[in-house]
Specification:
The structure holds two protein chains of two kinds. By secondary structure, chain A is an alpha/beta fold. Chain A contains twelve helices and 14 strands. In chain A, the strands form three sheets. Chain A has a seven-stranded mixed β-sheet, sandwiched between helices. A five-stranded mixed β-sheet of chain A has the order 9-11-10-13-14, with helices on both faces. In chain A, strands 1-8 form a two-stranded antiparallel ribbon. In chain A, helix 9 packs across helix 10. The longest helix of chain A is centred in the last third of the chain and has 16 residues. Chain A is globular. The two termini of chain A are 26 Å apart. Chain B has one domain: Rossmann fold (3-Layer(aba) Sandwich), CATH 3.40.50. The two termini of chain B are 19 Å apart. In chain B, helix 1 packs across helix 2, helix 1 packs across helix 3 and helix 2 packs across helix 8. The chains are: A alpha/beta, B alpha/beta. At the A-B interface, helix 3 and helix 5 of A face helix 4 and helix 5 of B.
Chain lengths: 330, 288
Amino acid sequence: MIRTEAKLAMDLLDSKIAQKPTRDGYGTGVIAAAEKDPNVVVVCADLTESTRNLDFKKKFPERFIQVGVHEQFLAAGAAGLAMGGKIPFITSYAMFCPGRAWEMVRTNICLNDVNVKIIGSHAGVSVGPDGATHQAIEDIAIMRPIPNITIIAPCDAVEAEKATLAIAEFKGPCYVRFAREKTPVFTTAETPFEIGKATTFRSGKDVAIIACGPLVHNALLAAEELVEEGLDVMVVNSHTIKPLDEKAVLHAAETCDAIVTVEEHQITGGLGGAVAEYLAKVRPTIQEFVGVPNVFGESGSPVELISRFGMDVPAIKKAVKKAHKRKTAR
Amino acid sequence: MGHLSDKRIKELEIIANQLRISTIEMVAHAGSGHQGGPLGMADVFAVLYFHALNHDPKNPAWEDRDRLILSNGHACPIRYAAMAESGYFPAEELKTLRRLGSRLQGHPERLKLPGAETTSGPLGAGLAQATGLAYAGKMDKKKWRVFCQTSDGEHEAGLHWEAMLFAGKYRLDNLVCIVDRNNIQIDGRTEDIMPLEPLRQKYEAFNWHVIDCDGNNVSAVVDALEATKSLFDKPICVLTHNIPGKGVSYMENNFIWHSQPFKPGQAEAAVDELKAVGAKLEAELAKL
């Protein structure tokens, strides 16, 4: 059942729940972070409005830096800003930064271990109609092997704001992925958030879903629907993908003995991979993977694409049932 | 002309010659590394570390120091030689170049060596970092300046031009980009691989001041770097025209010495030639 300690929204399961894109949470969060710390600056690559930096630009014009369509410079230049004592939030679409700027992110930011915050908006298939070119579904995979980086995928706009504030106070390079499309706002100001600490939103004993990003909501809906089918499903919000909350993952594996990972990302190299790599070492566990199955995206509405690539509620339910079947067949 | 006395110029020439000897010995001892570019840049590094830079070798993290970003990280032997010579670490440590556990990595690393300022090697990324640093310095009204040493070959990287545009846009006159215009890169001459000329006009078109100088003439390098102090409203490019392999007759202007390992006897011959030059310079100094 839903854990009261998670302090989730009362209308969590209501189809009319309020919706907002996670990038909006970044927009308000970065202003709050800038009010707290005068070294916070925003660097933008010709996407001020869509990366939700317009209000920041109005409020802190002297701390807003426009670099134009120069994503490699966005990353490498920010390393220099950080060496000069600034806390740069570098903002673009995830496809371009870290995507296009990967080597600068690796060498200039992470190997230098400088305090740069990489804000990757429009991640996942949520850019919808823009099509495969703009759908960053490999970003977690390209970031995970880089030492020194912290990777976060907030589940809704409220958590996105908390994550933005948290990374401003955290020393070291961070990558946070945000989505373009509106998604349910189902956490509250009181919902716990701490970098590196997964939150169990729903307790259960049959199968554990470990999810990140807005699909955590789909996972909760799937879990509720599965009650009718006699399954008691745990849902863990693993917002921090690196460092993985190994304690929470092990707890989920030991409690349920079957895992389903859910993410709006290629199955290869994402949260599912992180969970599998860890459990293979300490407690091999049955696992099903919900994510994009090694194909490029395409144009369509975000909802259509989530369904097409098998990340909607029916697909999650199917994966949970499969994991449960594998577990009971043993 | 003539910011420094003849005596001081001669002393800097002697230092540059010593940096060349250290470079040869270091790379020969390591068994790999780059020597052609560093030999050509020795005069510039002697002037930077012993005249132009406001720095404190005993306090590499000094807040008010000028920052020197080495963009062409493969040329690090010359920086390591200058750092040792000016007192950042004992000259003995130069023998650890490229060895396991050494602070002197094959390409420099900021977190390993205090004073290295940044990690570099992948080409074209230094000016971007220098530019970000200069922007931060401007925001905080700092007096320190940022120098970025670049190679000419790395001007082929798109990122370098992104940084040039940005520095021009924000009029970063606290930024000096020094170009090792030695006309060679790994595969041959730059103008055959991918022509850069007219390089001066390219910088000017990107809203930079440009100073040309003979990078193997210590007095000319001193004057060029002095001149950067009185240029405003735009970033400054100093095109130092250098002879790769300078000081070692069999290496000069031969692109194969970008990073070719020494054969037996070659390094010793190079050091002997440079020591003879050093003795001549010392004799000249004694007369001044």
